[in-house]
């Protein structure tokens, strides 16, 4: 009788473990999908911001270029055209950021850093562990209780 009960409990325990593993796997998959969707939305917002900024900066660039060109012609002073050069670099960068391949080049460079220069990604004092977090929490809570007294 005890053997049958033990066998049944073992089977139930095994089923429960499999169910828990399946549930935790589903939860992790959902969490990864959610984090990826959040990352995609943040990147979409950055691209949208770059495009919106480009509209304003492009208008500023056009007005400034026309004004400086007219001023240089009127005063016969070509040095008034000097600010157009750095403004052109800024405009080119914004255009590349908003509509060009900047993101693809950045992703490629990031992948290169991750594979060949992984030591640059190490955190100071290494990755936080449960013990280091608990130590900091205890230090804070003892400090808070000390300050209250």
From TrEMBL:
Single biological process term from Gene Ontology: positive regulation of plasminogen activation
InterPro entries per UniProt: Plg-R(KT)
GO cellular component: plasma membrane
Name recorded for this polypeptide: Plasminogen receptor, C-terminal lysine transmembrane protein
Biological source species: Gasterosteus aculeatus aculeatus
């Amino acid at each position: 009788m005890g053997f049958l009960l033990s066998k049944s409990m073992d089977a139930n325990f095994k089923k429960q473990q499999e169910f828990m593993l399946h549930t935790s796997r589903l939860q992790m998959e959902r969490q990864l999908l959610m984090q990826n969707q959040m990352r995609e939305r943040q990147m979409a917002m950055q691209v949208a911001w770059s495009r919106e900024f480009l509209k304003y900066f492009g208008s500023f660039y056009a007005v400034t270029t026309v004004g400086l060109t007219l001023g240089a012609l009127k005063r016969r002073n070509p040095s008034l055209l000097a600010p157009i050069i750095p403004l052109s670099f800024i405009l080119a960068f914004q255009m590349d950021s908003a509509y060009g391949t900047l993101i693809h080049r950045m992703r490629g460079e990031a992948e290169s850093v991750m594979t060949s220069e992984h030591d640059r990604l190490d955190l100071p004092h290494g990755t936080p562990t449960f013990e280091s977090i608990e130590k900091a929490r205890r230090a804070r809570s003892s400090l808070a209780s000390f300050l209250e007294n």
